[in-house]
# Entry
Amino acid sequence: MSWQRLILRVNLTTQNCHVEPLNMEWAQQYLGQRGLGSKYLLEEMNPAADALSAENKLIFATGPLTGTMASTGGRYSVITKGALTGAIACSNSGGKFGAELKLAGYDLLIIEGQSSRPVYLSIENEKVELCDASHLWGKTVWDTEVLLSAVDPQLKIASIGPAGENLCRFACVVNDRHRAAGRSGVGAVMGSKKLKAIAVRGTRGLHCNDNSHACNEIFQSINIRLTKRQGYRRNGTLAMMDITNSFGSLPTRNNQQVQFERASEINVEAMQTRNRNGHTNLVTNAACFACTIGCGRICKIDPAHFSIKDKTQYHGASGGLEYETAYALGAACGVADIDAATYAGFLCNEYGMDPISLGGTIAAAMEMYETGILSDTDTAGIKLEFGSAEALCEITELTAKGKGFGQQIAMGSKLLTKKYGCPELSMSVKGQEFAAYDGRSMQGMGLAYATSNRGACHLRADPYGHDFKSTGTGGKAEVVKTSQDEVAFIDSTGLCLFTGGSGWSISDYCELVNTVCEGVWNEQRVFETGERIWNLERQFNLQAGLSKKDDTLPGRILEEPAKSGVGRGLVNKLGEMLPEYYRLRGWDQDGRPLQETLKRLGL
# Structure
């Protein structure tokens, strides 16, 4: 089987590293990655502990298909208590780092304690050591990768930038220059531990249950279904912007509107069309380890643009705008400058910040500025007006570097708006900012936001098709609950969720998992495993102090009707959907799992 059956445990307080057996009984129950990492987290730490304390743990987890030839088999997750939310955090990343960790011989890497000085972790198969990182502290992610790769170009590196070092609440962990475990502040937890980077080289290989030839045939027969899906490869995720904008579910100017009148200036066509200087934003697409989709964008910014004309390091190509980034740094802030949004996205990659939470927080600050809650004195002269590309770039730079009013933005929108007495302006759930879908025309997504264990998230459920067909609430609770369980399973395999969006079925996942895991994995087991993971995460949150009151949406979404689009005149009807959702989950009216539910799932 493709499990290495080993955990690498690193205690930063004692500076001790040792290897121990993986709990295979837990692997049978929770599969891997998100599920298995969450099980270890709940078992090993007190969920009530402060996210930035030594008591919190940071787990890098692979899945049973990570490192295999299965398409997109390069995923890994970072599991911890989130610095942004205080809830369980599981942030998923692609690139090549996850596969390299698996090939080095480890299914999970568990980081505990806190170092008294900056360190980085060096892993070369069984050779593991903590090294001094004082020369790296303060460096960007890009510079850190260059410096560590100079030692060995084969190293795969995951690191934090200055945002993580400065404990920005939405700092992320970045690998392969522009791939990130992006949400919930996992980078701030890594920064609190004074762990700058993890550098891995792995050559141990993997073995499947079946013979290699048979496994390869299975992998390739399923992979080929993705090579026939050209949408992600040709347009990336940014193609979604035209869909949501026309539908009326593109959050604009801090969710005050649901359509952006200048969306055509930051959409796929804008990325692919030459501007007045003859410059094309898009350079090419990019793929992660073993990926046959290639959804990533590699882009350039016009060197003549105001925001970078004197900054030659940004004249080259790097990770371009995805839909969520274009929404957060574009429509959410009313900014229609694709170069400015791309530049701000570059800064997120370079300094290690989640662009969704950054954009959502800037959008809240812009509304605070325009309503007089924030003054020029507060912002040190930055005119945080909706639509200002200059303000977007300037405040992003300050946030990345932990300077000026950027230090306030780094708190995230929940703490920022609370500080200034206007918490209703934070478009977040459990402290995590909305993704690029408004919950009024998309009722199911509103329910998904409210019930997501890691705070507002577009990747914890799949109500898209149902929402685009109907703005009513009928059937939404069942769709959200069922898809949450399915997604929890896929997140635990080591594969990317985009495989489902590109045509794979549950039977495809079962066939792949059966090649690398013991026992029989069928559709029933898929959904039971996903349900077990979801309830485990809920148990963590309940013990952390969260409750039914946190399963809600901002007043703007519940009380202010959408002004345009298909959902014009609608608010989110969470009150109708939540009781049904709790019933389907086997929870009581306060959102606590019933004893029979816990017993049935072995919890």
Summary: The longest helix spans residues 523-544. The chain has 25 helices and 17 strands.
